[in-house]
Predict the 3D structure of the following.
Amino acid sequence: MTAVAISATGLFTPAQSITNEELVVAFNAYVERFNAENAAAIADGVVAALAPSSTEFIEKASGIKARYVMDKAGILDPAIMCPRIPERPNDEISVMAELGVAAAKEAMARAGREGGDIDAVLCAASNMQRAYPAMAVEIQHALGIDGYAFDMNVACSSATFGIQTAADFIRAGHARSVLVVNPEICSGHLNWRDRDSHFIFGDVGTAILVERADIAPSGSWAILGTKLKTKFSNNIRNNFGFLNRAAPSGEGKPDKLFIQEGRKVFKEVVPMVADMILGHMAELNLQPENLRRLWLHQANANMNRLISERVLGREATPQESPTVLDEYANTSSAGSIIAFHKHCDDMQTGDRGLICSFGAGYSAGTVFVAKAA
Ligand code: COA
């Protein structure tokens, strides 16, 4: 079988960031305003009073301290509480494609690639800005890439599903070099008025260049094996779609934005992912001591602690299971790729690690890699 490698990754981080403190001040101003405006109905028991959020809870429950966003002002305005990202005319690059292109350019530069070297583009992300043309085709065009491109959405697991799809195209001989791009503008699908989840997400773009190992540059990452899994669950859901475009979103009808049963997700996904990793390790004859690093999906620090403990048989050190949650929050499919991108430079030839994602679907993906010479 054709050997496949990750040649390079790229990262685009938005310029604006929101700390937990700033977020909670805005949320609590919204709560006060809502409770004041609805004081009579609340007193009559018709409307439930809203409870304030707290920075202590957020950090303890999730490990998140801040998040990057595309529009801080709109999110922090208690009267708006969502990003205001102006629509662009059709002859301008769309904002999601722009984010993807910025990340892709870094991955391409690191691998020494021009557009003409790449055969296909996958835009793998949890939300697409529009129905069509595919975001991937716009990104392909902006980068001067010939060949084919398409979008794929497997929520938080989009990047690992994209890596396996790219690797399969290469193994089948359809492509030699495939760019997987993950523009995640999660601030657009987060309900910033929902106390249970308003702190969860941030915006970012990542890119992964997957190539035939024999053309990959030095310092690339051999893909040892990939595995994907899905299992239907309603515990993380977003009902926004083209069949309900007239339905109100936000207050009162929040199911057109991100909703979840966080505790159930925690309880059900931790064992599912740990078992999947251990099963894949057994297939690849890998022992815990063979793994130098776990670049896990970045949704919740406590989940990652439990998963890495089950995999290694002991608690992982921060070096073994790096987190970017504190700075980036949950960036959906991009999270494990940011962790990989920022925490792989110290790895030596032969060192092995795991890129792992999990999330809505449920979906999970494991990609074992080894640093090449
Ligand atoms: N500020 C203060 N308190 C809050 C709060 C907030 N923003 N949000 C909830 N609370 C309170 C709740 O009211 C509850 O209080 P109670 O015990 O008096 O009823 C308490 O904190 C615990 O709430 P709970 O929702 O059970 O918290 P948790 O410890 O389970 O953490 C999550 C919540 C969402 C962070 C956690 O369950 C999680 O990360 N789950 C996995 C989510 C995930 O990976 N999703 C994938 C997304 S793609």
In short: Residues 53-54, 57-58, 61-62, 156, 195-196, 236, 260, 262-263, 265-266, 299-300, 303, 330, 359-360 surround coenzyme A (CB under 6 Å). Residues 262-283 form the longest helix (22 residues).
